[in-house]
Design goal:
Layout: E1 7-13, E2 16-24, E3 65-70, E4 73-77, H1 79-84, E5 92-100, E6 109-117, H2 123-136, E7 138-146, E8 149-158, E9 161-167, H3 176-180, H4 191-202, H5 215-228, H6 247-254, H7 265-283
Parallel strand pairs: 1-5
Antiparallel strand pairs: 1-2, 2-6, 3-4, 5-7, 6-9, 7-8, 8-9
Helix pairs in contact: 4-6, 4-7
Length: about 290
Amino acid sequence: MAPRANWKGFLKVAEVSCPVALYTAASTSERIAFHTINRATGNRVHREFVDSETGKPVEKDDQVKGYEVASGDFVVLTPEEVAAAVPESDKTLAISAFIGCDDIDEVYFDKPYYLGPADKSAHDAFALIREGMRKKNVAAIGQAILFKRARTLLIRPHGDGLVATTLNYDYEVNAAAEAFDDIPAMKLEGEMLELAQHIIKTKTGKFDPSTFEDRYDDALADLVKAKIEGKPIEIRKPAPPDKVVDLMAALRESAGMGGKASGKSAPKKEAAAKSKTTAKSKTAPKAAPRRKAG
């Protein structure tokens, strides 16, 4: 059964257009989800909006949007006024430019969607756009009204279809300087840098998402299963605080050298370590299928 499309419209490149459909590419719906329960009665608890001053419940028809202009002072907007701000959609995903596939900083990536032809009549035009982009090794920047908002998307060839990633607006992306300003400029060289490069080489592998494990979600599934079966639950003790270690000693230990100076030993061990890493990557087991509670 084909998945349900989140959006349908027309992909337009200059005068070439074709009907397309947008599908969710990543979802959290399979994660373990909990309800809030009244411990005393065992009944579900429902969320309710109450007046912050009177404490009385506010009916849905009396709930309106408000923007705080000063402490406790709000500009109130009716549902009709908010709806008037939603941009009108013409169901068109218009391509405005083609760029190099690596020209955009990935910090702007928001959410991925699969983009495919909406019906058989679109196959030729869709394939033409996809293969043209693939041959030129470019991505497309497009704009569309998605879910009541004007969105910019980065579109790239992906197998037999396209993947369209919504992009964050510039004002939504924090400046890197805010996070990195306190990092001092340092000059690293000599044995320390050589050891770091050696460790990186021995750990080199390939991207394989099937090996990623959601250990928290798996643990929750096991916990729910144990509770259903009436098994005792072992409460984990807090982990002891990490000890302060010598960076050089840690690098040597990671490189399998103990406390010895690197000298010429690192390259000799590198081939053996790389061989073990390669053999391990070939036989790495796939992640176990998601376990459902109950």
